[in-house]
Inverse folding.
């Protein structure tokens, strides 16, 4: 999948600049190449060294947590499923991460 296809697929997924103590640092419009794939969603915690990331690997999306430099996989979904989860559950995911801190 190309970057343009990713942006088209995610165009109806609202990604607020800030949610609770998390600030968006990457969106589908500003992806970043990682060794693991293309980082297209990232929220960084404002007070802790924690990032919630969604990385595209071919046609799949890996939800992961990066804490203190360690990457912890959370779940892997199709890109379509990932868009749905981000639309409906992003706030709850970030709140759960906040509770674990």
């Amino acid at each position: 999948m190309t970057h343009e296809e990713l942006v088209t697929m995610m165009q109806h997924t609202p990604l607020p600049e800030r949610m609770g103590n998390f600030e968006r640092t990457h969106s589908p419009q500003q992806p970043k190449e990682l060794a693991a794939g293309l980082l297209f969603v990232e929220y960084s915690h404002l007070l802790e060294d924690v990032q919630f990331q969604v990385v595209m690997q071919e046609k799949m999306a890996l939800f992961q947590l990066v804490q203190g430099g360690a990457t912890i996989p959370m779940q892997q979904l199709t890109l379509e499923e990932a868009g749905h989860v981000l639309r409906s559950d992003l706030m709850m995911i970030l709140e759960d991460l906040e509770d674990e801190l």
Notes: The beta strands are 18-19, 22-26, 32-34, 37-45, 50-57, 60-67, 70-78. The mean pLDDT is 92. The two ends are 34 Å apart (CA to CA). The helical segments are 3-10, 79-100.
